[in-house]
Design goal:
This protein is an alpha/beta fold and 140 residues long. 54% of the residues lie in helices and 12% in strands. The protein starts with a helix and ends in a 6-residue tail after the last helix.
Length: 140
């Protein structure tokens, strides 16, 4: 769904950027070590639509978490962010390693937002089960 929204934004000539959360966190970690967090934030601020996927699958360090907060704060009420996560917001303190920081991020993200909760089976798993039901597992 997020990819489709990004493609639609692009078709309307909105500059759109998609990045996986762990890749973004790696960039923030490296930038922090080099004293360049502000330049990374400025880089991602220039895109009209920013899509960040797969938040919360792996733990992140404090420097990366702080960089993410700065990015969210810089885009707050200026440019949209589309986030994809399987983690409930109540668990983001564990993801970011700091509940206060996570609450500050969430506060900015949910203000003026639309949260779409998708429940049910993953389409990837659903497709696999379809093959198993047909007896084609050995032919994958």
């Amino acid at each position: 769904m997020a990819t489709s929204l990004g493609m639609e934004a692009s078709s309307k000539r909105y500059s759109t950027y998609f990045i996986h959360f762990n890749d973004l966190m790696s960039r923030f970690k490296k930038a922090s070590a080099e004293g360049r967090i502000e330049s990374i934030v400025k880089h991602y601020l220039k895109y009209r639509v920013l899509i960040i996927g797969e938040i919360g699958y792996l733990p992140i360090d404090r420097d990366a978490a702080n960089g993410f907060f700065q990015l969210v704060a810089a885009r707050y009420e200026k440019r949209p962010i589309i986030l994809i996560t399987n983690q409930p917001l109540s668990k983001w303190g564990d993801v970011f390693g700091d509940y206060t920081l996570a609450n500050a991020i969430i506060d900015r993200l949910v203000h003026h937002s639309h949260i779409i909760k998708i429940t049910g089976q993953s389409y990837r798993i659903k497709g696999k089960l379809l093959y198993e039901e047909e007896g084609d597992v050995g032919n994958l």
